[in-house]
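Course assignment 3, question 2. Fill in each field.
Student: A.L.
Task: Predict the tertiary structure for the chain below.
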Amino acid sequence: MKKILKITGTLLLGLLTALILLSLTLFFMTKGDYSVPNTVENDPSIPHIEIDNVVFHAESFGNDTN
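Answer field:
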C-alpha cells in the first residue's frame, strides 16, 4: 500500500512540475511589447457617444432608416 501511494505521489509531483515548466515556457515565449489601439479617451475621432459624462465607443451597422 505504501508503495502505491509513493508511486502515485511521485507521478503527481512530476505532473505538477511538468505543468509549471510548460506554463513558464509558454509565458516567456509570448512575453513582449504589444501595442494596444487607442480608445475614445485618447482618440476623439473614433465614433463615440457620451452617457452621463462617460464616453463609450459606438458604431452602428445596417440601414439608418430602420
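Instructor remarks: Residues 11 and 17 are 10 Å apart (CA to CA). The two ends are 74 Å apart (CA to CA).
Grade: pending
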